[in-house]
Amino acid sequence: MPAIEVSAQHGKLLSLLATISGSTRVLEIGTLAGYSTINLARGVGPDGSVVTLEYEPRHAEVARANLTRAGVADRVEVIVGAALDTLPRLAERGDVFDLTFIDADKENNVRYVEWAVKLGRPGSIIVVDNVTRFGRVLAPAADDAQARGVRDMLEMMGSHPRLDTAAIQTVGTKGWDGFAVALVR
Questions:
Q1: What are the C-alpha distances in Å from 123 to residues 30, 97, 182?
Q2: Which value, in Å, is the radius of gyration of the alpha carbons in the chain?
Q3: What is the SS3 string spanning 1-62?
Q4: Pair 160, 117: CB distance under 8 Å
Q5: Which residues form the signal peptide (predicted)?
Q6: What is residue 133's three-state secondary structure?
Q7: Are 115 and 184 in contact (CB under 8 A)?
């Protein structure tokens, strides 16, 4: 399992955002081992639910075990497959989410945010992880697909007519990084 999970501080922030906003339906794009999922599930409480999308079957298996150990498996639906294939199915079944957390392949961040807006409502919150990456995202020399994906997403979120967005830098146990946080209008 790659060591790329959110830090304990970031996990607590996600839980608080879900609780403070009164979120009862949360979408997570990118599960990994389920650490952020556990925090989101705790934030929505026993009557809320989280749908989490994970590409790698092995990661989903580990996440399910962790969700069970944490006592929140009953409020989490883990869906395995490419998120860009799964998101249209969520729309077809009429899912609407109060909060979406995006922590997946950065190259597709723009498309993930577009889906978060579609699957949200006025007042929904969108949180995107890893928007600073030790300053690499804004470095002109950083021209890899991940850095471009984050830059394009930040530009899109900043100019999107239905989003009110802020980028927040963080420093902690995992170094210098940040979140983009948006309110859907």
A1: 22, 10, 10
A2: 15
A3: CCCCCCCHHHHHHHHHHHHHCCCCEEEEECCCCCHHHHHHHHHHCCCCEEEEEECCHHHHHH
A4: yes
A5: none
A6: coil
A7: no
Q: Distance between CA 115 and CA 109 in Å, rounded?
A: 10
What pLDDT, in 10s, does the model give residues 16-66? 999 999 999 999 999 989 999 999 999 999 999 999 999 999 999 999 999
CA gap 52, 151 in Å, rounded: 24
pTM, two decimals, is 0.91
What's the CA gap between 99 and 26, in Å, rounded?
A: 5
Residue 50: both structure tokens together: 């989280």
Task: At 85, list the tokens.
Answer: 């294939």
Coil, strand or helix: which one is 158?
Answer: helix
Give CATH superfamily name and number for 8-184: Vaccinia Virus protein VP39 (3.40.50.150)
Taken in order 73, 69, 99, 20, the sign of the CA dihedral is: positive
Q: In the structure encoding, which two tokens stand for residue 55, read together?
A: 């590409």
Q: Where are the domains of the chain?
A: 8-184
180 token code pair: 């983009």
